[in-house]
Amino acid sequence: MPRLAAQLQGLLMQRAEAAKQVEEALDAHPLSQLLMSMPGVGIRTAARLLLDVGDGSAFPTAGHLAAYAGLAPVT
Q1: Which terminal CB of the chain, N or C, has fewer other CB atoms within 10 Å?
Q2: pLDDT of the chain along its 75 residues, tens only?
Q3: Residues in domain Transposase IS116/IS110/IS902 C-terminal (predicted)?
Q4: Rg of the chain over all Cα atoms, to the nearest angstrom
Q5: Which of 35, 28, 27, 25 is nearest to 56 (CA)?
């Protein structure tokens, strides 16, 4: 049991370090403050959005991004 507790403690420390690295990388991104100013968007959501969308250059217009996100579906 003590060995499992030590492993769990190690994993929790790794998780905290990974969260710190994600937060630092997010803070360095120019869009982070804009994303996190939106209601309901925190560090995890902002990081996920930036991972999925990147700089947005793959989308010619905001409408394309909205359709990609499923916010404005078109048949």
Answers
A1: C
A2: 889 999 999 999 999 999 999 888 888 888 888 888 989 988 888 888 888 888 788 899 988 888 888 887 766
A3: 33-74
A4: 17
A5: 35
